Amino acid sequence: MTQPPEAEPPQPILEVRFFRTSAGNEPVRNWLRALTREDRRAIGEDIKTAQFGWPLGMPLIRKLEKGLWEVRTIIADGIARVLFTVKDQRMHLLHGFIKKSQKTPKNELDTARKRLKQLEDHQS
Questions:
Q1: Pfam families annotated for this entry (predicted)?
Q2: Which CATH number goes with the domain that contains 33?
Q3: pTM assigned to the model
């Protein structure tokens, strides 16, 4: 009796990259390291779901504006957000924070916009 061929593991649609500052820091990676192991795992699973299932919509992914989306993860302290962009099949993680109010705070959005611009300037 022959064995059925093993199924190929699913391939990610997007490659995940952490935004890196000109000084070489990775703000989202540093932010994640400061969270509990459980919170990191939950956020990581949601990023992986986006990576393998792109494009996705609510409730996991919400488009904020042109070129900017958020991964929404419920964690112990509230709702974690990881703001990202997609360029050339790469999911660039720009900014992460814990959301405390209904509306995304302007300063958090501005941080992601600034990093998006730096990313675009660097790639051109």
A1: Gp49
A2: 3.30.2310.20
A3: 0.91
